[in-house]
């Protein structure tokens, strides 16, 4: 009996390891195959259009570019690392201001029907407006490119936070609020002890959507306003006809955006729960 048990246990362990190995291979082979196909298509396009750099040429340029990404030869000649950090700084400021305003506003709109009736039409009207449409107004108000870009980030980031937070508050089960009323909880305790834990997944969804939009907008805003930033750097490389650097910038923008999205998705999963 002991021998049979050992054999059975060994067989289950082997099956478990095989399943894990197959899962790991699928997780690796699929993306690797997709990336290989992408590189082959890129190579084929580059062979037909000489102006497009090949993957090999782009890799060689990237190695040289990232050998010293933080050089500084003056305001208009700085390494790509400084430009990425400048863009991230603008996104952090605009995104942070949007969170400070948008999340509390979403709570108020979702909590009080009168406020929701008053401001929902305004949010519905302004939310579809392209963030770059607000950029000239920012230049008019602030008389400078940097705060105008932050203003565009603020505007594009605030709407997903307001909408998702308000929707989350409105969906909180009435039973929760009835219990809070029976316990005679203050409005502050209702918000912090009842609403916030239930609404947090919705808030984080709004935050995740906002950061993706903010990163998209900052690149376009910097291309229009100039100065420093990955968007300005990309446009400057186009003016210098360095197409390989443009391709590198596209990859850098995508990688940074993916990292921001991944971090916030992990945070959202950490605080998402399902009711039993």
Automatic annotation (TrEMBL):
Annotated compartments:
Cell inner membrane; Cell membrane
Cellular component terms, GO, for this chain's entry? plasma membrane
| Topology in membrane | Multi-pass membrane protein
Q: Which terms in the Gene Ontology molecular function aspect does this entry carry? A: nitrate transmembrane transporter activity
Quote the CDD domains the UniProt record gives. Answer: TM_PBP2
Major localisation: membrane
Question: What are the protein's UniProt keywords?
Answer: Cell inner membrane, Cell membrane, Ion transport, Membrane, Transmembrane, Transmembrane helix, Transport
SUPFAM superfamilies (alphabetical): MetI-like
Q: Does the keyword Ubl conjugation apply?
A: no
Span-the-membrane segments of this chain are 24-42, 91-113, 125-142, 149-170, 214-234, 246-268
GO terms classed as biological process: alkanesulfonate transmembrane transport; monoatomic ion transport
Domain ABC transmembrane type-1 positions: 84-265
Output the superkingdom of the source species.
Answer: Bacteria
Pfam families given in the database record: BPD_transp_1
Name the family the entry cites. Belongs to the binding-protein-dependent transport system permease family.
- Its name, as the record gives it, is Nitrate ABC transporter, permease protein
Q: Which organism is it from?
A: Achromobacter pulmonis
């Amino acid at each position: 009996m002991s021998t049979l048990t050992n054999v059975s246990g060994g067989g289950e362990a082997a099956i478990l390891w095989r399943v894990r190995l197959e899962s790991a291979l699928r997780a690796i082979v699929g993306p690797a195959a997709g990336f290989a196909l992408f590189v082959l298509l890129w190579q084929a396009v580059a062979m037909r259009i000489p102006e497009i750099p090949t993957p090999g040429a782009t890799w060689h340029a990237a190695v040289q570019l990232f050998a010293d990404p933080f050089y500084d030869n003056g305001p208009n000649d700085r390494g790509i690392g400084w430009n990425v950090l400048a863009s991230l700084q603008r996104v952090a400021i605009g995104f942070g201001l949007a969170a400070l305003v948008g999340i509390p506003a979403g709570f108020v709109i979702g909590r009080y029907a009168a406020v929701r009736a008053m401001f929902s039409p305004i949010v519905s009207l302004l939310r579809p407006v392209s963030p770059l449409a607000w950029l000239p107004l920012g230049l008019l108000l602030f008389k400078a490119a940097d705060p105008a870009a932050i203003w565009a980030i603020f505007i594009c980031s605030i709407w997903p936070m307001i909408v998702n937070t308000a929707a989350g508050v409105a969906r909180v089960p009435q039973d929760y609020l009835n219990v809070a009323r029976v316990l005679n909880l203050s409005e502050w305790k209702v918000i912090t002890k009842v609403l916030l834990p239930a609404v947090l997944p919705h808030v984080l969804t709004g935050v995740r959507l906002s950061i993706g939009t903010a990163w998209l907008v900052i690149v376009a805003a910097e291309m229009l306003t100039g100065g420093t930033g990955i968007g300005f750097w990309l446009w400057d490389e186009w003016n210098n006809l360095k197409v390989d650097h443009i391709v590198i910038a596209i990859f850098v923008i995508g990688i940074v955006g993916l990292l921001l999205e991944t971090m916030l998705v992990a945070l959202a999963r950490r605080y998402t729960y399902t009711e039993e």
